[in-house]
Design a protein that fits this description.
Blueprint: H1 6-101, H2 103-129
Helix pairs in contact: 1-2
Amino acid sequence: MNMPSSSTQSFGHQASNVADDASRAADDAIQGTARAVDEGAERLSSKVDDLRNQAAPLINRVSTQAQAAARRGIDAAKEGAAQLREKAASATDQTVAYVKDEPVKSMLIAAATGALLMGVITLLSRSSRD
């Protein structure tokens, strides 16, 4: 068997040192990258927290304004419905009073209105068949 010469051993030792140095450099690069990623993630998380803290009052204000607008809309609709009910009741009262005061005229007006409506319906039904 051939015994390795000292230059072969020296070359093997140098190659091992180079591999070890490359391995340590790769480990250092990986650790440095991991630290940079961790720091970036921490900064990003901090920015997100800052934005969330800044946005919360704005969201609350907009929500409050939307609720107030909805409340005003509901109140306006209720008021409009109440006014419409009052006008309908007043019109009903006036109609009843007129019928009591002028029963013959009321009957003639009702008959004329009915005849007019029947004429319109007849006209519309004929034109839809054509």
